[in-house]
Amino acid sequence: MTSPTFTIRMITIDCLNPGALAEFWSAATDRPVLADHGDFVIVDSRPLLGFQRVDSPTPGKNRIHFDVGSSDREALVGRLRQLGAVEHETYTVPGLTWTVMRDLEGNVFCIGNSHND
Q1: pLDDT the model gives residue 56
Q2: 90: helix, coil or strand?
Q3: Average pLDDT of 90-108?
Q4: With contact defined as beta carbons under 8 Å apart, do 77 and 91 qualify?
Q5: pLDDT for position 7
Q6: What is d(CA 49, CA 41) in angstroms, rounded to the nearest whole number?
Q7: What is the pLDDT of residues 54-94, one digit of tens each?
Q8: Where do the DSSP E strands lie in 21-107?
Q9: Is-contact 85 1, C-beta < 8 A?
Q10: Counting beta carbons within 10 angstroms of the beta carbon of residue 36, is it exposed (0 to 12), middle (13 to 18) or buried (19 or more)?
Q11: If you placed Cys at 45, which of 11, 31, 59, 70 could pair as Cys (CB 3.0 to 4.6 Å)?
Q12: Mean pLDDT estimate for the chain
């Protein structure tokens, strides 16, 4: 017997302001807002990104984060800073450089590029 198919269709992020966070990620991914239900907003990315209003998001560092690839990491980091993201540290290991950033509500994500890009 084969296992059922497993597909991630949406990643949902708990937040205080789903509209603002969805607008940030919509601009960051260059994908439109697909649905705005007030307390739940969806960005039309692959997988979909959902932003769900909660009274108190989990404090501290998020346990899951996005790793985004770019052939021009520096330019993308600059563009995301202009959208309101905060740049933290940049790291390099053999073959890879990445920059740790935070979105408008402090969610961590990384922008990386391999040295082969």
Answers
A1: 85
A2: strand
A3: 93
A4: no
A5: 78
A6: 8
A7: 998 777 777 788 898 888 999 999 999 999 999 999 999 99
A8: 33-36, 40-43, 48-53, 66-69, 86-93, 96-102
A9: no
A10: middle
A11: 31
A12: 91
